[in-house]
Structures are given as structure tokens and as C-alpha cells.
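Q: C-alpha cells for this one, please.
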Amino acid sequence: MKKTETIFQDGSHKWVAIIRDQEKPGYLVDTNEYLVINGKQGLLLDPGGAEIFPAVFSALSAEFDPSALTAIFASHQDPDICSSLALWLEFNPAMRCYISWLWESFIPHFGGDAETFVPIPDEGMDISLNGLPLRAVPAHYLHSSGNFHLYDKQAKILFSGDVGAALLPPGDESLFVEKFDTHIRYAEGFHRRWMGSNDAKRRWCERVSQLDIDMLCPQHGSIYRGADVQRFINWFDELQVGIIQY
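A: Here is the predicted structure, written as C-alpha cells:
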């Protein structure tokens, strides 16, 4: 069973992290899902794989009426991102899925039809959640050739998909990064292997450094907050990626 933690709230504007499932089989990578609520509407970020749908659905239902979910935001095309799409659509066929235009004819293999998908152009776009402006921020070639993050200017939160991800050791269930120097060891190997371009990484670091960010929320591992946000960006900017030795 996953648990939920509210990480931001201002009136009816709310961010909920759906995290950690101690009953999850060990062969599945652990994932974070995030629910953004504004008024009576909700947007689910990277809803996860089909295997974990029951745990995510149960945890989300304790916080929010799932029938009021209006959309899914999928940062990219991987199965741990959105292979549960058909199950969510079975519950609410009117739900829309925001995804890079690059994947709009691939993701339907997980479910949905031509009406389901809202393609995001390479330069990004604004998404309105019941009047709350959210920005799809380009992160192409950082793990995926068509990749987006989502920025909430009012909450000062950047959902960063696989950027910032860490593969934590068993027993470490920290919601937030507590000791950066220790935590970053669990992120280094992942970033070196899964981030494909040093040029793309540099452009992303320059782009997000211009944003006012209180929390950087990855799909795996713990959330960076406060000074650790810029500390991570600086660390990532210096890291050489896209090269393996074998």
C-alpha cells in the first residue's frame, strides 16, 4: 500500500506525493506519483505502471475523488511512467493525457484513442488546471528523446521526472533529501547511464536555474528542497553523462 504526503497547500491548491509501497515486489523499481489539485479538478503526474495501479488508485482515492481527475501528464513513454493508462481510462474515459508529440502514436499501445492525447510541442506549452497555470518545460534527451517536466509557478514546484532520481537502498523511505552528499551517491550511476547528452543536460540546467523553485520532485527517490535544489542543479551541470565503460 502506498502512502500519501501533502507537500504543498494554499487553499484548494494542493500537491500530494504518492510514495513508497512496502508491499511492492522487489523486482519493480520504486516510483513516485504526484497529484496536483486545484479546486475540484486534479492532474496526475506520471501515474505509474499497470502493476502498481491498485496501490496508486487506493492511495489517491483517500485524498481525492478519482472521478474528478481531468488529465494525466506523462513526462515520457516508459512503462513505469504510464503503462497503467488503460486502467485509468477505464475508470474515466474522458480523461486526457498530455505527452510529447513524439510519443502520441506510441503511447496508445498502452491504451486510449485519438481523443485521449494532447500533444506537447517541443518548445513546451501552458496547461491550465481549473485556471491554475502549469508549464510543460522541455527536458529532451534527458533519459528520453521527447521529455517534459512540469512547473507550477505558484507552488514553486518543478516535477522533474527522471532528472534528480535516486535508487535508494532498501529501508530508506525518506520523503525529502536530508543529507545531500550521502543521497547523491544513489543518484550518480543512474544519471551517468540514463541521461544521454551533455549538451541537453547543460541547456536544462540553464533553463531551470531561471525558475523560482522551492521543491524539485523526481519520479524516483527523494524530493530536493530549499538550497538542495540549486545544489542538485550545480552537481548535475558538472556531471559527465551519456558515457559508459565496459
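A few notes: The radius of gyration is 17 Å. The mean pLDDT is 94.
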